[in-house]
Design a protein that fits this description.
Elements lengths: L3 E6 L3 H9 L4 E9 L8 H5 L6 E8 L6 H9 L9 E2 L2 E2 L6 E4 L2 H16 L10 E4 L3 E3 L7 H4 L1 H8 L3 H8 L3
Parallel strand pairs: 6-7
Antiparallel strand pairs: 1-3, 1-6, 2-3, 2-8, 4-5
Helix pairs in contact: 3-4
Length: 173
């Protein structure tokens, strides 16, 4: 059985799990931290904005069921790709939008998708989401994993903090 991984940062990782986790072909979605300079950071360290990490999700998927391009499309619809200073109510560098690519194929897919978004820009502001090479990924503490299942009411509050309205306004299918 073939498996690949994808890493996306788009604000609070609590809100990034469910949209991927509910898709066919997804083996796991792990909340964690990447892109920084500290080994195995804690949530408190990342929140201090001193480690350089961003909250992200690492998705393990079966490419025979769901392709990387499909995951990138889902990613765009969960983020505000025009906001470099965070996402929705989550502010700061640890919430910046980044697609972390693992190799030339993922990079080409992500860059093509970003260019299509730029060309068809449904936003008033420019697309700023970065595409960067994969960096070490550190799983977050257990209480952050599967947050939307463990805390459905709090997840709904987080989701409704601007993210849902933004998505509905800009990503009509």
């Amino acid at each position: 059985m073939a498996e690949e991984t994808a890493i996306f940062a788009g604000g609070c990782f609590w809100c990034m799990v469910k949209p991927f986790d509910t898709q066919p072909g997804i083996k796991s979605v792990i909340s964690g931290y990447t892109g920084g300079h500290t080994v195995n950071p804690t949530y408190e360290e990342v929140c201090s904005h001193t480690t350089g990490h961003t909250e992200a999700v690492e998705i393990t998927f079966d490419p025979n069921v769901i392709g990387y391009a499909d995951l990138v499309d889902i990613y765009w619809k969960q983020t505000d790709p025009t906001d470099a200073m965070g996402q929705f109510q989550d502010r700061g560098d640890s919430y910046r939008p980044v697609i972390f690519v693992n190799g030339a194929v993922q990079k080409a897919v992500a860059e093509k998708s970003r260019q299509q978004l730029i060309d068809n820009n449904p936003f008033d502001d420019p697309i700023i989401t970065k595409i960067e090479a994969v960096k070490p990924f550190y799983p977050a503490e257990d209480y952050h994993q599967d947050f939307y299942r463990k805390n459905p009411q709090r997840h709904e509050l987080e989701e409704n903090g601007g993210r849902s309205q933004f998505i509905e306004r800009h990503w009509q299918d």
